[in-house]
Amino acid sequence: MNWRLASRLSVVTLTVLVVLIVALWGTRLHTNGTVSGDSVPQSNSNPSGLQGADLGGTPAPNFQLTDQLGKSISLSQFQGKPVILTFLYTHCPDACPLTAEKLHAAMQSLGSQAQQVGVLAVSTDPKGDTKAAALAFSKAHRMENYWHFLMGTHDQLSPVWSKYAVYAAPQTSGTGVNHSTAVFVIDKQGHERAFFGDDLTSEHLITDLQILLKE
Question: CA torsion, points 92, 167, 83, 129, in degrees to nearest 10?
């Protein structure tokens, strides 16, 4: 066997090995329900049938804040109802309005069952989220009859962010707030059941709430 033939055979062998490795790695990713470069949890990752990432039924930390109507609201008062908990601010130009619209679509789809669900939006902007701003934001997204937009000082809100591992801080430019995109689905017993980030859709919420309402 001359050196040219040997060289060609080694190249072919190496190519076959690379193809096999890629195929095996692709099979492993498919089995785990994850696509390379995609951190969004798959809908089948939750054994209870819920669409969000499984949170294992950990008790949701309680808190108490004031809503857009000036009422004192605590998470614990919603025992017996599923709860959607999210973190927003009223002057947000992108993610927050989208989340609010998805919540509205879900509540509309649930019809009369929407009154059996608690929806809490915790402010991530202590300075900008005034009562007037919260009322205007709630009306703009037709959520005034569905949710409690919860506000407070930084000292009141910061512990809530920490309890739910939500990042919130003013942008260095001073024109907005950097914060985590987070939606928690909590069951009637006050247990964290599912989590959504940017992957949230109104259909996900409708499915999860219908499951929890029947439990």
Answer: -40
